[in-house]
Design goal:
With 372 residues, this protein is α/β, with parallel strands linked by helices. The chain is 30% helix and 18% strand.
Amino acid sequence: MKIGFVSERGFGEPRIAVMPPVIDRYRKTGIEVLVERGIGDHIGLTDGIFQEAGAELADPGTVPGSCQILARLRAPASEEIPAIPAGTLHISFLDPFTETDRMECMAAQGITAVSMQMIPRSTYAQKMDALSSQANLGGYVAVILGAARSARIMPMMTTPAGTIKPMTVLVVGVGVAGLQAIATARRLGARVSAFDTRPVVEEQVRSLGAKFVKIDIGETGQTQDGYAKELTPEQLRMQREGMNRICAHSDMIITTAQVFGRPAPRIITTEMLAAMRPGTVVVDMAVESGGNVEGSRKDAEVDEKGVIIMGHSNLPGRVPVDASTMYAMNVFHLVQEFWDADAKAIRLDAGNQIIEACLATQDGAVLLKPSG
């Protein structure tokens, strides 16, 4: 049994799904590792390093046809799917609720596809939870990018010329990314506030030394996986009104609110931007799914009358070494979970809760579909 890894640099993805320290883990499990030549050149990992770790090298384009398991970051492009043999177990980030055409193509090709987005947020599955591991890094990077773009420093500083007040940072959405953004901004010395529709996260916010902003928008809650439930249009209006004042007095705002399988909720409106002070930096972490900020553009910075809106996508990809290290371990733990050492094969037990949640296609059928 071989697991193959391909480079996705041609599609703008700097992360990779395997790192040298993980290769020995696969080999001890009984799985051989096949790596595309040049996969790690851009992060200082030569082919020789992968060979020394025990991997076999293959020319670009030949990996999918030479392995039984194919692991990567992104969903395959439409032109790549025919090159993946039927029966291959394909592991990557897949959004089965919006990428329906791609799911149909993968099913028709006979590919067994696992969506890393759909790994359950449970204690048992935590070591496989790539969505959380990457969101953690994204929250960190968002603060660093915002701090680098701001004309202000983050910490309070006492100087011969007087005391500089700390930067005020507002984090909207207290999931994994939001919590890391709070922690990072606090470590850099900023005064941090945070808002989330779930009152249950207040304790987490306060434990990080930040202030939890309370806005009465009626009954809210979270899904069984811990994500915020989608708000009604009326609740969104009430939320915007309540946030308007605090946004106007913030030096940096980081928005992280996303609803899986649906466009991101619009939280920061043009009217709210107009009320902000020139020089305010707004980092929209949800730009890839439509954006929380009106006027934000993917992979661009927008100057809205002095307010800088940053819409950079793939924030974890800006720290590709650590992001790849974390993702590689997530993938390994997933493969190990379903590896039958005696049969030297992957066994996807239909009754397993993890497989029920993340298996997107199998035996020519799409298993995960949009509801309604």
